[in-house]
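Technical note accompanying the year-one report. For the benefit of new consortium partners, we illustrate the data format agreed upon in the data management plan: each record pairs a sequence with a structure-token string. No post-processing was applied to the example shown here.
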Amino acid sequence: MSKNPYRQDREVLKELLQQFSNLKSGKSYSFIEEDGFERIIDYYDEKEQFALALEATEMAIEQYSYSATLLIKKADILISLRRYREALYVLEQAELFDSTDSSLYIIKTDAYLALDMQEHAATLLESVIDLFEGEDRLDLLFELADVYDDYENFEKVFDCLRLILQQDPSNEEALYKICFWTDFTGRNEESIKLHQEIIEEDPFNELAWFNLGAAYQGIKLYEKSIDAYQYAVAIDEKFDYAYRNMGDAYIKLRKFREAIEVLEKVIELSRPESIIYEAIGHCYDKLDNFAQARFHYKKAAHLTPEDSQLQYKIASTYMNEGTWHNAIKSLHIALKSHIMQPDYNLALGRCYFQLGNMEEAVTYLGNVVRVRPKNSTGWIELLKCLYQGNLFEEGLEYAGFAYEQTDAKPIFIYYKSAFLFAAGKIKEALIYLENGLNANPRLIRQFVEINPSLMQNQQVVALLARYKKTKSRK
């Protein structure tokens, strides 16, 4: 036996290629066995020297004219050369000699798909799958799944993968794929049943446990999904995707401490990812631990500096702590790539408002109402700034704009009343206050928040008392 079989194999291939070269040039008669031709063809095919591969197949077929294997190889090379209809003709010949080779149907399917004849491809595979068993049947089912995917019959992709797993429950490729297609098609209940059956036969199949967890998560049974993921990581303690999904499930259950624990495990097991650091930051945010939230958002931002949302989240942690100057710095970074983004402008407006810089606050809040004129939040913040800045005439005008733009939201009647009071137009202010009460009396609290001293105005108190008395009679 050779001490170096690889070298020996290479020498045999070298000799075969020399024989093929001699045969082409006619230098000397050289007989090559069928399997020798197959090796020559495969060599040129792997090197993507398709013209030489085709020449070798044609010479081989001249010598072995009844070989279905050689005809199938020729068809495969013709497909590589984009000669699809020729390939189909050759495959028809091959099928006459041997219809039991599953690769014949797979290659024919590739030709149909290249010709945009997906239904022909599906019909062909559907008609022959039950003629095969074992690995051949699995190969054809995978091919059929790809065909269904190609012409967007996604439900049947799921069906093919289910059939594969019913035949081969430990097939990793099918287990990975069916997880995606379960989520895509929403067939979570069927996936749960399938994977429960797999686990019953093989309780140490970590991928089946993972898929079971994902299916439970798909129908919002988060406790059950966590249980399944815990089985998966008990079998494979380095199963980072199970920890990742478990973290998401804990977040959905608002169990933020548990989520942090498993998400930190993801960081231990895989390369750093922005989305994981951001998720941990979110958990700390929800726990009001703003320093840790900011630390993790910054780590995420370091990995994806183009993501302006992370700068916004960093700013939000500063705002929650009342450190307005730091928040402003982060928001200006976020605005570099999205200058009119309404949430960023709204946050900047609020920061400047808190610092008493009404001019800047009005500028940024003005951007908000320009971008989102029908959203009341920006208008309310803008009107608050105008009120605090004693810009009563402007406030009166903008309260009218806000009322029009937001399809007559009653809150802006109250704001108009407040500005009229501030401008000393008492009679008109009382009329608008009464109109506001008739439109939505519950908003009176927000009116009082604009300026609590209005409740010391006897005319306001009298109007409210009269309104309550009228309502009680009704």
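Partners are asked to follow this layout when depositing records. The mean pLDDT is 92.
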